[in-house]
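Consider the tokenized backbone below.
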């Protein structure tokens, strides 16, 4: 009965991974392996079907207990079995107290281990059955590449599963950076159109007057510059899905033509006479309030109702703060290089969770990426955060000097200021790279993704040469 359930084995020893994998395959399990905690978490993010994790306790970087904590954040009901070497039983007991399913001492008995894994699988299945079948897909905090455990995100995850099955138009609204595009990706990839084209159109980026030909294509010679016939996005998306991103930016006159495709599924290329029929699922998204736009005369009411068949509204991050720690850990895994495990101090975590995040998840992602890049050591503290978040004035944070301070251009123009700031930034980054590699120029160059020669030249230019000779 346990055939096909997948077990993830995490151990820094190649040999142990191999032995465990062979043994569990013989007992009828599928197995996956990871050499460290960070890689294990990356696998778990992609594979919510994994039924059991077996992890060694002592590993370089993230140890078994840290891994357990992170797994519990991703999916609290996933059973984790801890392997311990002789003499580390106390930590194993601690691990069980903090939520591990059980532990087993090395060297272990094959049969006993298989039995324990079977028990864990049974446990996993029973907790799965207890959950409401509709809610079940949402019991994991990573869904379709999106992180979230807040009530709002859970209900959005459920909504996505339901709307993916339909062919109706979806309107995704929410502030900038809340994840509208990720939702659109999920809807398409979960639908039965997933192996057909998914065409994304950024309506704000289409030049004046070119909307019609962009959407519906044009025939040769339809207008000046139309040297060849060209299919439009609706034609290319046939059978699949089209995303009309920033839909509020479509000119008013064009909105009527869009309404027609939505209602009748037909259109003509600019300058053409043939009527095309297209079978396209439409997803629209906007960070504007369309009701307001309608009142101001910028958006057609009838088009709004046509688009708003299945509305999805993404709440801003500040209204779902419980997602912030999960997102932070997710971005740490994403941006920390190799198997480096970056910890975060309680104060820094507090500052990050109480900040207003006007740019939502995109802003959080950028802050994490830059903080981790510039981090000395392995613990991120409030001093590593930008001052608007840490509340600490003059914190060493890119881009450095605020633009307002460059008010005196009497002796330095744009070029000089930019050059000076670039030098300062390069100096800072190179010094950090050298420090973190123990002054090893070759490795620092790798870290900075430039050639060794290039780095040496830069160091000379910036006056860093003598320090490292
Ligand atoms: N729940 C989430 N989990 C993980 N990453 C997320 C989540 N939501 C958004 N992101 C990330 O945040 C960034 C912004 O997301 P996205 O581009 O989907 O936002 P948007 O709402 O379309 O923004 P805009 O209105 O500015 O276009 C992306 O890098 C995306 O991967
Ligand atoms: Mg977007």
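A designed sequence for it:
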């Amino acid at each position: 009965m346990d055939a096909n359930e997948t077990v993830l084995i995490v151990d820094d020893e190649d040999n142990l991974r191999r032995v465990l994998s062979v043994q569990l395959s013989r007992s009828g399990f599928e197995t996956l392996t990871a050499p460290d905690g960070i890689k294990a978490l990356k696998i778990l993010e992609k594979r919510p079907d994994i039924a059991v994790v077996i992890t060694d306790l002592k590993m370089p970087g993230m140890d078994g207990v840290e891994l357990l904590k992170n797994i519990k954040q991703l999916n609290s009901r996933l059973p984790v079995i801890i392997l311990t070497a002789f003499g580390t039983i106390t930590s194993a007991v601690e691990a069980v107290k903090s939520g591990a399913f059980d532990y087993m001492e090395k060297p272990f008995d094959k049969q006993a281990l298989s039995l324990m894994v079977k028990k864990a699988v049974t446990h996993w299945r029973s907790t799965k059955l207890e959950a409401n079948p509709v809610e079940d897909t949402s019991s994991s905090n990573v869904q379709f590449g999106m992180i979230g455990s807040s009530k709002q995100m859970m209900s959005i995850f459920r909504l996505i599963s339901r709307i993916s099955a339909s062919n109706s138009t979806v309107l995704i609204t929410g502030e900038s950076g809340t994840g509208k595009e990720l939702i659109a990706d999920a809807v398409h990839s979960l639908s039965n159109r997933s192996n057909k084209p998914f065409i994304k159109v950024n309506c704000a980026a289409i030049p004046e007057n070119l909307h019609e030909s962009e959407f519906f294509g044009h025939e040769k010679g339809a207008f000046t510059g139309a040297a060849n016939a060209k299919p439009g996005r609706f034609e290319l998306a046939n059978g699949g899905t089209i995303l009309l991103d920033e839909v509020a930016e479509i000119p008013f006159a064009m909105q009527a033509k869009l309404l027609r495709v939505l209602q009748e599924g037909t259109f003509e290329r600019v300058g053409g006479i043939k009527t095309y029929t297209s079978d396209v699922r439409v997803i629209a998204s906007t960070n504007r309030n369309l009701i307001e736009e309608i009142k101001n005369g910028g958006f057609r009411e009838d088009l709004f109702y046509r688009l708003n068949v299945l509305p999805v509204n993404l709440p801003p991050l500040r209204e779902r703060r419980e997602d912030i720690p999960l997102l932070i850990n997710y971005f740490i895994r994403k941006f920390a290089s190799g198997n480096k495990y970056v910890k975060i101090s309680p104060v820094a975590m507090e500052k990050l969770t109480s900040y207003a995040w006007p740019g939502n998840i995109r802003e959080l992602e950028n802050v994490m990426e830059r903080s981790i890049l510039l981090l000395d050591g392995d613990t991120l503290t409030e001093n590593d955060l930008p001052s608007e978040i840490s509340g600490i004035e003059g914190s060493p944070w890119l881009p450095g000097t605020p633009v307002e301070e460059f008010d005196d251009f009497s002796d330095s123009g744009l070029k000089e200021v930019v050059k000076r700031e670039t030098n300062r930034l390069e100096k800072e980054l190179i010094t950090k790279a050298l420090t973190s590699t123990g002054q090893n120029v070759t490795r620092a160059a790798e870290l900075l993704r430039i050639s060794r020669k290039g780095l040496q030249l830069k160091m000379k230019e910036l006056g860093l040469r003598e320090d490292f000779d």
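Residues 146-148, 174, 176-182, 287, 327, 361-362, 365 surround adenosine-5'-triphosphate (ligand 1) (CB under 6 Å).
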